[in-house]
Amino acid sequence: MSITQLSASGFCLYAAHIAFASPSEAAGVMTLILGIDPGSRITGYGVVRDTGRGCVYVASGCIRTGSGELHERLQIVYRGVREVIKTYGPVTMGIEKVFMARNADSALKLGQARGAAIVAGAEEALEIAEYTATQVKQAVAGTGGANKEQVMMMVMHLLKLTQKPQIDASDALAIALCHAHTRSSLIPHGLSTARSRGGRLRL
């Protein structure tokens, strides 16, 4: 596994890369899926390739915004997500829905970071779907009550990772896996019937 640092004005992305497609897989229909775990300080991202027989790891990492003013951090999230999209070329994106935090200010900032990521995906014409934390845990770990460590272990198992990803990147990979699972169940029944205005999906 090699570590690559991608730089852009005002932020850094740290991404782990491994080889991800065998010749037999390359011959089939595959979809690159981006998962986003939004945050005003750290936004995790994970990219997987859906081969039709399962998902293969492509990349993961974190967009770290530093300690600047909120509007500056939101701009970094937006630019960072766009950089990830341009680098890996996903066609669809899953993102976690805002949870009801005890701290109203934290929930507001999380919602704003989430909005910045969604706009970045929309500007790159990605199909976007939203999932609750419970939906993600259920899809990946088989129970909506799984903790972060259990989710990470399942992510590593499903994607055959030999090293633990960063926690925010692990959550993003889990979201990508959840989205892949949901898309595979929707497509036979007509994905377009689940689509709402602006390319967003009602799930």
Automatic annotation (TrEMBL):
Q: Which InterPro entries match?
A: RNaseH-like_sf, RNaseH_sf, X-over_junc_endoDNase_Mg_BS, X-over_junc_endoDNase_RuvC
Keyword Chloroplast appears in the UniProt entry: no
**Positions with a binding annotation for Mg(2+) 2:** 96
Can you cite an annotated GO cellular component? cytoplasm
Q: Where is the signal peptide?
A: 1-21
Coarse class of the primary localization is cytoplasm
Enzyme nomenclature, EC number: 3.1.21.10
Q: Which Pfam families match?
A: RuvC
Q: Which GO BP terms sit in this record?
A: DNA recombination; DNA repair
Catalysis performed (reactions): Endonucleolytic cleavage at a junction such as a reciprocal single-stranded crossover between two homologous DNA duplexes (Holliday junction)
**Cofactor(s) for this UniProt protein:** Mg(2+)
Q: What class of enzyme is it?
A: hydrolase
Cofactor: bound how, per the entry note?
Binds 2 Mg(2+) ion per subunit.
**Which positions are annotated as binding Mg(2+) 1?**
37, 168
Keywords, comma-separated and alphabetical: Cytoplasm, DNA damage, DNA recombination, DNA repair, DNA-binding, Endonuclease, Hydrolase, Magnesium, Metal-binding, Nuclease, Signal
Q: Where, subcellularly, is it found? A: Cytoplasm
Q: Which residues form the active site?
A: 37, 96, 168
Gene Ontology molecular functions: crossover junction DNA endonuclease activity; DNA binding; magnesium ion binding
Q: Report the function annotation for this chain.
A: The RuvA-RuvB-RuvC complex processes Holliday junction (HJ) DNA during genetic recombination and DNA repair. Endonuclease that resolves HJ intermediates. Cleaves cruciform DNA by making single-stranded nicks across the HJ at symmetrical positions within the homologous arms, yielding a 5'-phosphate and a 3'-hydroxyl group; requires a central core of homology in the junction. The consensus cleavage sequence is 5'-(A/T)TT(C/G)-3'. Cleavage occurs on the 3'-side of the TT dinucleotide at the point of strand exchange.
Belongs to which family? Belongs to the RuvC family.
**Could you give the subunit structure recorded for this chain?**
Homodimer which binds Holliday junction (HJ) DNA. The HJ becomes 2-fold symmetrical on binding to RuvC with unstacked arms; it has a different conformation from HJ DNA in complex with RuvA. In the full resolvosome a probable DNA-RuvA(4)-RuvB(12)-RuvC(2) complex forms which resolves the HJ.
Protein's recorded name: Crossover junction endodeoxyribonuclease RuvC
Q: Which organism does this record belong to? A: Pseudomonas tremae
